[in-house]
Design brief:
The protein has a single domain (44-210), classed as Porin. By secondary structure, the protein is mostly beta strands. Strands 1-2-3-4-5-6-7-8 form an eight-stranded antiparallel β-barrel. The protein is built from one helix and eight strands.
Length: 211
């Protein structure tokens, strides 16, 4: 009886040991292969908002009468990007901003103000995954309003161009942030105080949503 009990205990111990060994990890099993996260792709349409600060000077024969304009700009933009196989990104963007850019003539009390500013520009950038520096250039236009105390006001649309550069950063797969600087030159046009135009620098930030 004792011999039979001893044999049973020995068999039970061997069975438990085999089960424990089966639960141990296989040291010869190869680790799972590493799969890199896919790179961000900038292709697609987007829409967004922007805000920033503008400064510069008035041009034309009447430009010297006014103090240099400066104030905020804010508005929205819409555009499209296409990322090529070599990570070059090409695109087009249009924006329209409300502007507080204005300057006063201390001698007469007259005021010149750029009420609105819009651009349509091409863009060329290079994608470093979620970071994309770019260059941009294209059409710019804005409405200039001249106010003269005791006289009729005059306003008119100015055509011109914009050139600049910036950096886009993809915060998520759909939302990106931007810092951008533009130089804007608008043509001289005849007003009640003489010919007037604009040479401006615009620095602004933006948030975009990509569809």
């Amino acid at each position: 009886m004792k011999k039979l009990l001893s044999l049973s205990l020995a068999a039970l111990a061997l069975t438990a040991g085999a089960a424990s060994a089966a639960d141990l990890p296989n040291r010869k099993q190869a680790p799972a292969p590493y799969v890199a996260a896919p790179s961000y792709n900038w292709s697609g349409s987007y829409i967004g908002v922007n805000a920033g600060y503008g400064f510069g000077s008035f041009s034309g024969s009447a430009g010297s009468q006014f103090k240099n304009p400066s104030n905020f700009v804010a508005g929205g933009q819409i555009g499209y990007n296409q990322q090529l196989a070599n990570k070059v990104v090409v695109g087009v963007e249009g924006d329209f901003d409300y502007s507080g850019l204005q300057g006063k003539a201390s001698s007469t009390g007259s005021k010149a103000r750029l009420d609105t500013l819009g651009t349509v520009r091409g863009r060329v950038g290079y994608a470093f995954d979620r970071v994309m520096p770019y260059l941009t250039a294209g059409y710019a236009g804005g409405n200039e309003k001249v106010t003269i105390p005791g006289s009729n006001n005059s306003s008119g649309w100015r055509n011109g161009y914009a050139v600049g550069a910036g950096v886009d950063y993809a915060l998520t797969n759909n939302v990106s942030a931007r810092v951008e600087g533009l130089y804007v030159a608008l043509e001289n046009k005849t007003t009640a105080v003489g010919k007037l135009g604009n040479d401006l620098g615009i620095v602004r930030t933006a948030l975009n949503y990509k569809f």
